[in-house]
Design a protein that fits this description.
globular, mainly beta, 1 helix, 76 residues, 14% helix, single chain
Length: 76
Amino acid sequence: CMLLDVSNTGAKLEVEGTLDVLQAKEFFLVLSSTGLAYRRCELVWIDGTTAGVHFVTADGKKKPAAAKAAAAQSAT
């Protein structure tokens, strides 16, 4: 698949071929060739060969963008 857009809370993907692999409710998206950058994802929508996903936190809940931004700002 190709990463078309990414934010703190999710991503937009274009998948070549069938989207059957995305039919799982949750899956991992590997963002680097070394496998060191990855996100747990929840499928939100599919439109043709394009799909939208939300990133899921370790506790299984979607993290709001405002909370994530505040946490990042307080870490600096």
